[in-house]
Each structure stands twice: as C-alpha cells, then as structure tokens.
Design goal:
about 375 residues; Rossmann fold; 2 domains; 5-stranded parallel beta sheet; about 20% strand; globular
Length: about 375
Amino acid sequence: MKAIHIIGILILAIIIIGGAAVLMGSTDNANLVQPIKVGFIGPLTGDAAVYGLPAQNMVALAVDEINAQGGVDGRRLEIIYEDGKCSGANSATAMQKLVNVDNVEVVLGGFCSSESLGAEPVATQNKVFLFSLGSSSPALTGKSKFFARDYPSDATQGSVLAEVAYNDKAWRKVAFIQEQLDYPLGVYNAFSSRFKELGGVVVKEEFAPGITDFRSILTKLKAEDADALFIATQTPAAADRILKQLTEINWKPNILIADAISGDPATVQANAEILEGALAAEFGIDENNPKFRHMLDAYKNEYGSEPPYLSYAQIEYDGVYIIRDAIEAVGYDGEKVAEYVRNLDGWQGASGSITIGQNGDRIGGHLPKVVRDGAVVLYSG
C-alpha cells in the first residue's frame, strides 16, 4: 500500500509540474504574440468628426491589411483610438492616457493642428513618437524630434494663394475671416505674410468657435471694399454658414477658401453658385498611382463609398504603413521610430513619394485650385 501511495504521489507531482510547465509555456507564447499597440488621436465627435471618423476608418483599413499580411514581425498591430475633439486640452489628456495607461511608443495624430500642439509636449516628455496625419499649422515645424507629419505645412498653402491672388488676379486688398483655432490661424499667417511681402493689404476679422451668426462680421468686412474675401475655418460646417450668410447680406465677392473647405465636396456643391471661381490650394492626388487606386478600391469595398477628403485619406493610409516599416526596421521604440521617420527619403505610398526633413515636415506642398461648376479643379490661370 505504501508503494502504491508513493507512486500516486509521484504521479500527482509529475502532473502538477507538467501542468505548471504548460502554463509557463503558454504565458511565454502569449508574450511572444502580444499585439503592438499604437495610439490614435483625432476628432471623433463634434463638427470636426467629419475628418476624424473617415480617418479612423482609413487607419483601420490599413491595419487590417497589415495584419492579414502577417502583422509587424509576426505580431498583430492594434490601434487604440482616442477622441481629441479638435482641442489641445482634450488631446493632451488623451496622450497622457495613451502613455501612462496603454504604454504606447507611437501615436498617430493629431488630425487638427490644435490636437498635435496639445499632445506634442506630453509625447516629447515621455519620448513617445507623435506622427500627425493631417495637422498643417506652421507652428508645428521643428517642434520636437518626437514629432513629424506626412501632410505638408500650411506655409505652402498660404504662400501659393498669396502669389496667385497678387500676381495672377492683381488683387491688392484681401478681407480675411478666420476662426480662432490653430489651423485657420496658420493659414492666415502664411497668406498674410506672403501677400504683404508682395505689396498687398490684409484686413482681418476673427470669430470664436461655436459662433453661428456672421452677418455683422461680414458686413464690416464688406465695408472695407476689398478685392476678395478669404474664408478660413476649421470645419466645412462653419464655412457653409458663412457662405449662406454672404447671400443674405447681398455680397458676392471674389473668394479664397482654405483646404478644409475646398476638400469637402458637399460644401462646395451646396454653395456652387457663390463659390464659382473661388481659389483654393490643396495637396494633390495622383489617380494613376497604383497604390492610390488600391487604397480607393479597398475603402469602397470595405465601407461602400469613396473616402471623403482624398488628399487627407491618402496621407492617413500611408501613415500606418510608414509606422509599420519603421517598427520592422528599428523596433518598437518611440525614439528610434522618430529618428527613422524624420530621415524618410523617397518612401513610395498612395500619396506619392514621401521625404520628411529633419524639421519633421513633409517636403512638398500645395497646388493652386479653382472651383468650377461645383468641383475643385487645377487652376491654370
């Protein structure tokens, strides 16, 4: 009986030890296949959600493609989405959460310039790489070695429009209505600086976010007897209200619009009559680019429609693949990924050839456009 008892104890010990080994092996294997978590900050609620929700869809599409191809070095890519609400304060809070709770090394965002400006100090302090897919304020140029963007600075948008307005149109005075947010301010600063250098005059009126009645501001600007009116808003919704109220006060000026407005087909088409001939400057698309065509077809197959804001969509799609390549090249380390991206030279994507300078800006810029019959087309003089 004692022998049988001893044998039983030995068998039980073997089972326990074997079970522990299996559990340890399972834990080790689980660690090996833990997903790579990347943060995302964008406007998922409010008026600016017209940008953020399509961006979320495009990022998810690229991530699904990458994971279907085996992920990043055999690990699944996982995005943690945070609502920046197009606000610096909300984005800073979102970044704190991504850094301290989710322990990410890389964040895609923000989309709004205010989001990136709010999140960047937190990213830099914690050596987390912040890679913007849409922020264009010149105030972000050279901000930190932990920030870069694959969308060009508004410095080029503003200067392109200033040169067309002054040299081609012979306009000498431009009235400017600007929402008090970082992106519209960046457009104003770039345009105003170049237009004044050329010899022009700019008069400006600002309005706080949330304002819906612009008639008194527009009436004041109308009295300036300017050659044209430049409208710079964060979202198409605000611009749509301004354009409708221009009609209400019987003012049909020559118009310039920021790319946040020209990039929204619905707003352009709804205001086609008053916008006829309006000038804009956008980062272009190449419909003959095979990667762009693939992106477009994949999005249509997944979501049943073409992505809005194609100039942004191609940037968002490329951004995910750039981060994939960076992690595969240097590992999942914020500082190393930041250095990799800020040395990107001739990377080929849906948005064409991407080179990013040491100041974190994409090299390249905007092309002049004009509104014709409810569509935004290349400006040819």
